[in-house]
């Protein structure tokens, strides 16, 4: 219990998750401190917090004794520029990464941390070209709920030895333990970029992809009726491809992104959803009448819903299309009566994984699919 006494403080008014107040807050500064803390916290319910930008995502925990704040687990541990990899502390704000002419190509909310983006499986416009955090993560260090430190992957892109814990922990919402370090594959920072903005319909996405211009992102916003394409590369290459897409879409080229680019479409008092459908079903989703914004090039869009009826309508549309709809955030009075996750295949497998890693259901209890 010494680690608890040394590393924790009483929780304050702002130390809550989904309205559930914590009793204690701890801020370990290393993997070793984090392991000692978790080992000493047996019997306590735990939620991990990074920058707090997504702490309101998902259902509230059933109970909350301890918040583990990761912001002291920060900094670039290693940057091997020749190998295009970096090792980063989980509490590092993504906006603070200074990697010279290289980049970690993950879109993020201002203030979001590396660990938080991985834990929530968040992604943004550039997922079309670079993939998501799950695709860029090649190694991970975690503290299991029993206090044991586990590592997976390595510092080379083709490392396939052992179990891929990184993919298991990505999108797990902190239910399997504490992420302390991540190893990522990097990309060169592009020399030039341009946006082609148009009012072309969602059906135009297939023509953009068929044009073989290697777009970095294809985003759509129903509130403005705008379709926007991001192109990156050499100055001459971007200029040529932008001209082609400008003509194809009857649009205009801009050096800056639309004001809505990469932003959530919902207001604080609205219900926010993540919708995933096959590309062929994107036009039908866009025409559903809801406020949508997101990646028309991958079929991952975000919606603002006014009430539960609209949530059910969008969820039914996605399921019929072979996709799914997850409620990310909602006002407290709605969240308490809403199935935020909806039908999710593989729930039995997820329960077995949870029982293997966290048999006491201590980490983020009730925050994940099926009350896991």
From TrEMBL:
Q: Where is this region: Disordered?
A: 1-20
Q: Which SUPFAM superfamilies match?
A: FAD-binding/transporter-associated domain-like, FAD-linked oxidases, C-terminal domain
This chain's protein is named FAD-binding protein
List the biased-composition ranges (Basic and acidic residues).
1-17
Give the originating organism. Answer: Paractinoplanes pyxinae
Give the record's keywords alphabetically.
Answer: FAD, Flavoprotein
The superkingdom listed in its UniProt entry is Bacteria
PROSITE patterns in the record, alphabetically?
FAD_PCMH (PS51387)
Q: Which residues form the FAD-binding PCMH-type domain?
A: 17-189
InterPro entries according to UniProt: FAD-bd_PCMH, FAD-bd_PCMH-like_sf, FAD-bd_PCMH_sub2, FAD-linked_Oxase-like_C, Oxid_FAD_bind_N
């Amino acid at each position: 219990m010494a680690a608890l006494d040394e590393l924790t403080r009483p929780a304050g008014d702002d130390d809550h998750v989904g309205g559930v107040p914590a009793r204690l807050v701890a801020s370990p500064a290393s993997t070793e401190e984090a392991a000692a803390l978790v080992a000493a916290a047996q019997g306590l319910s735990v939620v991990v917090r990074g920058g707090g930008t997504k702490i309101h995502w998902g259902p509230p925990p059933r109970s909350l004794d301890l918040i583990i704040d990761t912001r002291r687990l920060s900094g670039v541990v290693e940057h091997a520029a020749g190998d295009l990899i970096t090792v980063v502390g989980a509490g590092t704000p993504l906006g603070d990464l200074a990697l010279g002419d290289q980049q970690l190509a993950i879109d993020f909310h201002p203030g979001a941390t590396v660990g938080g983006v991985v834990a929530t499986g968040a992604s943004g416009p550039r997922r079309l070209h670079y993939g998501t955090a799950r695709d860029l993560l090649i190694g991970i260090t975690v503290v299991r709920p029993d206090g044991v430190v586990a590592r997976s992957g390595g510092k080379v892109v083709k490392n396939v030895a052992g179990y891929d814990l990184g993919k298991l922990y990505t999108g797990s919402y902190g239910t399997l333990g504490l992420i302390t370090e991540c190893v990522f594959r990097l990309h060169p920072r592009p020399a030039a970029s341009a946006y082609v903005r148009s009012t072309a319909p969602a059906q135009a996405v297939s023509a953009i992809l068929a044009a073989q211009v290697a777009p970095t992102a294809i985003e759509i916003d129903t509130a403005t009726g705008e379709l926007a394409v991001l192109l990156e590369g050499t100055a001459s290459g971007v200029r040529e491809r932008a001209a082609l897409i400008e003509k194809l879409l009857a649009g205009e080229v801009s050096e800056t992104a639309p004001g809505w680019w990469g932003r959530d479409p919902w207001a604080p008092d609205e219900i926010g959803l993540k919708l995933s459908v096959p590309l062929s079903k994107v036009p039908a989703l866009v025409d559903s009448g809801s406020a949508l914004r997101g990646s028309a090039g991958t079929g991952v869009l975000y919606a603002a819903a006014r009430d539960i009826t609209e949530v059910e309508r969008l969820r039914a549309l996605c399921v019929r299309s072979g996709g799914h709809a997850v409620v990310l955030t909602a006002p407290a009075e709605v969240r308490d009566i809403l199935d935020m996750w909806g039908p999710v295949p593989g729930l039995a497998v997820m329960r077995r994984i949870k029982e293997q890693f966290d048999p006491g259901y201590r980490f983020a209890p009730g925050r994940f699919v099926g009350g896991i």
